[in-house]
Design a protein that fits this description.
The chain is α/β, with parallel strands linked by helices and about 210 residues long. The chain has two domains: about 150 residues, Rossmann fold; about 50 residues, no CATH class. Helix content is about 50%, strand content about 15%. The chain has nine helices and seven strands. It has a five-stranded parallel β-sheet, sandwiched between helices. Strands 5-6 form a two-stranded antiparallel sheet. Strand 5 and strand 6 form a beta hairpin. The protein starts with a strand and ends with a helix. It binds adenosine-5'-diphosphate (2 copies). The site of one adenosine-5'-diphosphate has 18 residues, from helix 2 and helix 3.
């Protein structure tokens, strides 16, 4: 299955991807995670990305498109992939489309997790993750177990200020990919305003 997860920052894309890969056994490809790895490695690309990410801006299309195309050409993606956080702009969606057409394959579904703006800042500022496993928690909605309480970390861009900037970018740059995929008949909408397990159940029925 070739699948895209789309939705505002904090919609629950990473949380749901972690639950879905058990069933679907396809690589979970998060461009946010790939970019954070590049930042950590201190590569030239990582240094550029760091500046954009901290400010809540998007990393340039060229960089991200190149990174994803290289990744989905790998052998583990032959049977499919779950893209999380890509495409985030119309040019990214078009570049992916061209790439898949050239490879003679098609997307199966674009899962759109909808969450109202007023819930986003709380979700983002309370987000914490386990630096070892990458597991995602939330101080209020999904608190880390006691033994991890001192270990979990907060992302540098999970401040209220950067979150508001990201939300604006989401509406101006990312939301326009929805009509693009609607034209292709690929969108499945899921209401993400419920407990995580309920959202997973909704996704499963949307995919059935
Ligand atoms: P969120 O969990 O808030 O949706 P991500 O982890 O997906 O955020 O992305 C974090 C940041 O990485 C984004 O704010 C952006 O700066 C950068 N980024 C991730 N994916 C892309 C992309 N497809 N295009 C441009 N920038 C991206
Ligand atoms: P995204 O990848 O879309 O940015 P995440 O999966 O990282 O979103 O979730 C953002 C934050 O919201 C995390 O702290 C996560 O624990 C929390 N979260 C995810 N799904 C839900 C939900 N259904 N209800 C409440 N909080 C949630």
């Amino acid at each position: 299955m070739r699948m895209i997860l789309v939705g505002p920052p904090g919609a629950g894309k990473g949380t749901q991807a972690a639950k879905l890969i058990d069933t679907h056994k396809i690589p979970h490809i998060s461009t946010g995670d790939m970019l954070r790895a590049a930042v950590k490695e201190g590569t030239e690309m990582g240094k550029q990305a760091d500046i954009a990410m901290k400010a809540g801006n998007l990393v340039s299309d060229d960089v991200v498109i190149g990174m994803v195309i290289e990744r989905i050409a790998k052998e583990d993606c032959t049977e499919g992939f779950m893209l999380d956080g890509f495409p985030r702009t119309r040019p990214q969606a078009e570049a992916l489309d061209t790439e898949l057409t050239n490879a003679g394959v098609k997307l199966d579904v674009v899962l759109f997790i909808e969450v109202p703006d007023e819930l986003i800042v709380d979700r983002i500022t309370g987000r914490r993750s386990d630096p070892e496993t990458g597991a995602i928690y939330h101080l209020k909605f999904n608190p880390p177990p006691a033994e991890l309480a001192d270990k979990v970390v907060q992302r540098k861009d999970d401040t209220e200020e950067a979150c508001i900037a990201r939300l604006k970018k989401y509406h101006s740059e990312t939301a326009p990919i929805i009509p693009f995929y609607e034209e292709h008949g690929l969108i499945r909408r899921v209401d993400g305003n419920a407990a995580p397990d309920e959202v997973t159940a909704r996704i499963k029925s949307a995919l059935a």
